[in-house]
UniProtKB/TrEMBL annotation:
Name of the featured protein: Uncharacterized protein
Residue ranges that the Swiss-Prot or TrEMBL entry lists as coiled coil: 47-74
Key words, A-Z: Coiled coil, Membrane, Transmembrane, Transmembrane helix
Name of one Pfam family that matches: DUF6776
TM regions (residue ranges): 16-36
Native species: Novilysobacter luteus
Superkingdom of origin organism: Bacteria
Amino acid sequence: MPLSETAAAPQRTRRAITVVVALALVFGAWGVWRVLAPAPGDAHQRLAASEDARKALQADHAELQQRVATLSRSDQISREANRELQGTLAERDEEIAGLRADVAFYERLVGATAQRRGLSVHAITLQPQSDAAWHFQSTLTQNLNRGAVSTGRLSLSVEGSRGGRLQKLDWDALRQQEDAPGIEYSFKYFQQVQGDVFLPEGFEPVRVTVRLQPRSGAAVEQSFTWAQATGSTPSATATE
């Protein structure tokens, strides 16, 4: 074999080895890329998974909003119920106070230690119905003759001023009726008598007097200031 051919053989061998190595690297890289690179279907699956996750989050958000709305409504209902309860309790307290006052009144009237008094006016209240009309309610009592029935008629008169001058309105003027009959009463221990009176325009009342004319015996008169009768002052003390 010539010398030149003997020298060229190793070179061809090295080239062949280089080509084989290069091809091996190429095929290895291609294999790695095939293994690591996502398959065409993976992208669609990921998109589908992302859409499902988004819908799940939206559902959770809607559920949380519904819970918040439900809790807010429950809180509002609780607050309204509490306000109604407070109002009911206030009404009950007022009723209890009224009942206690009634019990004290009955005890003073018919109790074992009650002071004996004949026919009298315990109190009178006046409430406005319009600019001129007033509704009155007067409580009459007697415990001197227990078991005896007191009968008669009640009338009012009002003192005040009009146009800078003192004036007294009798029952006829207050009822706007000539020879107006008094309001009848009939009771053993107490009775509440009520009716309406009318004040002329510009009249400023200062005192109201209740007159009781029993069927037999002398008349009884008791006076109250207008402020007491209308509740402008704490108590209503009568003066005979």
